[in-house]
Amino acid sequence: MSEQKTGDAQRKPNRLIHEQSPYLRQHAYNPVDWYPWGEEALSRARAENKPILLSIGYSACHWCHVMERESFEDAETARLMNELFVPIKVDREERPDLDQIYMDAVQAFSGRGGWPLTMFLTPEGGPFFGGTYFPPTDRHGLPAFKRVLLAVAQAYKERSQDVAHNVEKITEAVTAMSGYSGSGVEVPKTIVVEAAAALSRHYDRTYGGLGQAPKFPNTFAFSLLLRALDICADPAMAEIVDRTLTHMAKGGIYDQIGGGFHRYSVDQQWLVPHFEKMLYDNALLSRLYLDAARALDRADFLQTAREIFDYVLREMTSPQGGFYSTQDADSEGEEGKFFIWTRDEVRAAVGPELAPIAERYFDVTAEGNFEGKNILHRTIDIADAATIFHLKPEEMELRIAEIKRRLFAVRERRVKPARDEKMLAAWNGLMIGAMAEGYIALAEPRLLQAAIRAADFVMTKMWDGRTLLRSCKDGVARFNGYLEDYATMANALIDLYEASLDAKYLAQARTLMDAVLERFADRANGGFFFTSEDHERLITRPKPMFDGSTPSGNSEAVMALLRLHAYNGEQAYLREAERAIKLFGELMMRQPMGFAHLIEAADLYFRGALEVVLVGDPRSPDFRQWRERIGLLYLPNRALFAVDPAAPADAFIPEAARGKVQIDGRLTAYVCRNYTCSPPQTSLDGLEAQLKHPA
Q: What is the spatial distance between Cα 607 and Cα 227, in angstroms, rounded to a whole number?
């Protein structure tokens, strides 16, 4: 969606025209008198004793666009909003603190949430009524938005006691979440296997995934199942991950032509997606496919991860090196238009010789599978196609590659979905970590180079030596960073150290986590707050608990602290990680889906890091060969160390690597866990045996 739409030239822009956020600028020509969140809007609400209409969304949100077209661009609706309220528009990706607070509020009020989030507040920011999408007329059991506006304004004016009661109750509920102090229940060492077993009960045995429609990737759940497989070798865990990732990669949720995953599937079969593409989904899924490829010996999963990276490097990487946030679901005002095909379009694109193969391989029909057109997906493999068309598999592989090339070339001439080009620290951290791990698994230098460029961008443009900023666009960084920004970037920098063996990244990770301990820690109860101590004062200071589409700040912080402890032995890191695990222990056991990534961190806590120490010249061919072999193994709690005997005496040597020496001048490896190390290994086969069966 363009920032200035047809007919906007005759309209005077509102205040959002001066904002960086593409989502806010999408609303700059609405007839609504929008304010960004800030003191100007809040002061006006207080001065005029007007309630605030807070609307929160994001640029790739399909239903946000729908509500804009139906209501925010409607003159009569806008008149009511302007007369009765102080309208504030917020980009949830820039201000996840506000989104967290008011999403908790609407869920406490109505039992459900989502975007667009529509919340009505007192001038002091107290929530008293809310919902999500409201239609322009009564339908689907939802009241018309104009009717809601009139009723809420009347209630605020005439029933102040009821409003005050609602504010009190909702605020109590929201504050209770952020003030959670735990139950003191000890987390069992068996939590990974027990949580995986609980998650597996929701497994769809036909199409993979958890539950029915709509289906989300649930990345952390499947990552947790891989850890359970590593612990107990239960083939059922392998089957769940294998089937799920296979069906996802073949489905319409995956962009078969351009690579990368769409947000989620509206149906059970992974066929029809919501077409937006999010940087975080593709970061998390690329990493999951790398891990599953190594754990399950699936080379095709490595290829899926490679194609995701291809997509991100091609479509989502800025000239400065940082990664953009999202691509829209809509183009030319239609959801999915860029991605779908008629049969005639496919035939024209690939030519008469390849058309029969393309139609069979990607299940293209005259009737289509989505509003008369085709979402490309795969119901057969290359080997099946080769049999059907009497070709050798390698010949079919070449033809499929040519079909994809031709379809991609034609698609590139279409109007592309809008791209949100703001760069968020936390989401960049997820992709930096994924590409660093991609380099370790795939040995492709371009991935390491991209990860280094992005990390250097964040740590020069968005970090001033004390404060990490949340968002950067058009060369301007803004907004105080949140817990997830610091912790996710710290994990990314640790990943980058393991990929590059450049000690500066470990030092940067430590600096970020020291800031977390200083400014985000809940010293009374354990765990960490969403916002720093010097953040804008809101109605509550939230504490992020649940892992959702992205990891919670607490799970990322615990993971980073434990990983850093493996490198430097800092007891304060271990102590604060342990406090957080104990704080959320009962919730982790009761709600494994919502705490899957924190349970992964608990696995690292209980089993300890698998420390791999290589002593030798990092520039030697042998060292490179050993690194590549290690990269092909599934080692969920890996901590990689390198000691160069020729390095200066004052060079950085991680705690666990000190005192490790070469044997007879040969490249030597040590495998350690829980303060116990294997005998030194001077052969690659010996090292691999130790890694598969560590001490």
A: 11
pLDDT score at 2: 37
Q: In terms of domains, do 631 and 577 share one?
A: no
In a domain, 462, yes or no: yes
- Tell me which residues of the chain have a pLDDT lower than 50: 1-3
The pLDDT value given to residue 187: 93
Q: Residue 554's closest CA among 530, 589, 575?
A: 530
The bridge status of strand 86-91 relative to strand 326-327 is unpaired
Model-level pTM greater than 0.90?
Answer: yes
Q: What is the pLDDT of residues 31-76, one digit of tens each?
A: 999 999 999 999 999 999 999 999 999 998 888 999 999 999 999 9
Question: How confident is the model over 156-165, as pLDDT tens digits?
Answer: 999 999 999 9
- Measured CA to CA in angstroms, residue 162 lies from 85, 141, 157, 158, 167 at distances of 18, 24, 11, 9, 9
Nearest to 600 by CA among 217, 220, 97: 220
Q: Which domain covers residue 620, as residue numbers?
A: 610-692
How far is residue 309's CA from residue 440's CA, in Å, rounded to a whole number? 14
Helix (H) or strand (E) segment spanning residue 417: none
Helix axes 445-461, 299-315, angle to 10 degrees: 40
Distance from C-alpha of 478 to C-alpha of 21, rounded to nearest angstrom: 11
Q: How far apart are CA 473 and CA 245, in angstroms?
A: 34
Residue at which a domain ends, from 588, 607, 626: 607
Picking from 387, 413, 439, the residue at the C-terminal end of a domain is: 413
Per-residue pLDDT at 413: 97
- DSSP E strand stretches across 45-115: 52-57, 86-91
pLDDT tens string 538-567: 999 999 999 999 999 999 999 999 999 999
Phi (first) and psi of residue 563, to 5 degrees: -65, -40
Match 């920098």 to its residue by tokens. 493
**In-domain check, residue 507:** yes
What whole-number distance in Å separates Cα of residue 193 and Cα of residue 187? 13
Query: Is residue 111 included in any domain, yes or no?
Result: yes
184 within some domain:
no
**Residue 439 DSSP SS3:** helix
Q: Work out the end-to-end distance of the chain between its first and last CA atoms, rounded to an integer number of angstroms.
A: 56
What distance in Å separates the CA atoms of residue 120 and residue 149, rounded to the nearest whole number? 9
The greatest distance separating any two alpha carbons of the chain, rounded to the nearest whole angstrom, comes to: 87
Per-residue model confidence (pLDDT) at position 1: 38
Number of separate domains in the chain: 4
Same structural domain, 634 and 679: yes
- Give me the long-range contacts of 33-36 (CB less than 8 A, separation at least 24): 33/78, 33/81, 33/82, 33/87, 34/87, 34/88, 34/89, 35/86, 35/87, 35/88, 35/89, 36/88, 36/89, 36/90
